[in-house]
Design goal:
globular, 18% strand, 177 residues, 5 helices, alpha+beta, six-stranded mixed sheet, Beta Polymerase, domain 2
Length: 177
């Protein structure tokens, strides 16, 4: 299993069942260095959706009581587990990453820190679970991801924007449940 992408690189690779093991290894390390409980750490993103192609990066969801009360010690503990806070600005989310080495060029894991059991937490888990239990939707999503490479678009922001309407349509399904 090869993990990692350079900054702004977009590549998808065939599903690898070792992604689940890699998530569990990272979860164990995060628990070891922080006071987080196992229930606060979930595998999300395309590597958590069985059988589909994905960027070779493990996405981890961490739920906390409040983003505003996280202190330097919390992020120092994550650094001890080799996760570094990024300067990425996202509403109601803090992003951290793990890299292959000290050059910080290739990211292998992302942590998405959100408020536990609030809207963003629920959306990310719903998306994963909905795709894992709906084969037709899973295939539509994979085909959409593959079709990105047939466009003239480049970079991670374009890739994310390209998928956004689909992602929002899945979130709409959550409202009807």
């Amino acid at each position: 299993m090869k993990l990692g992408l350079k900054n702004n690189e977009v590549v998808i690779v065939p599903y690898d069942k070792e992604w689940k093991d890699e998530f569990n290894k990272a979860k164990t390390e995060i628990i070891q260095y922080t006071n987080l409980k196992p229930s606060q750490i979930e595998h999300v993103g395309s590597t958590s959706i069985e059988g589909i192609q994905a960027k070779p990066v493990i996405d981890i969801l961490i739920g906390v009581d409040s983003l505003t009360t996280l202190d330097k010690a919390f992020f120092k503990n994550l650094q001890n587990a080799e996760f570094y806070k990024l300067k990425v600005e996202r509403p109601n989310e803090i992003v951290c990453a793990k890299f292959t080495d000290e050059t910080f060029e290739i990211k292998t894991h992302f942590i998405h820190i959100v408020e536990f059991k609030k809207e963003k937490w629920n959306q990310m888990l719903f998306f994963r679970d909905y795709l894992n239990t709906n084969q037709d939707i899973k295939e539509l999503y994979e085909n959409l991801k593959v079709s990105f490479f047939n466009t003239s678009l480049k970079g991670i922001n374009s890739y994310t924007d390209y998928k956004e309407q689909f992602v929002q349509s899945v979130f709409e399904q959550m409202k009807s449940k």
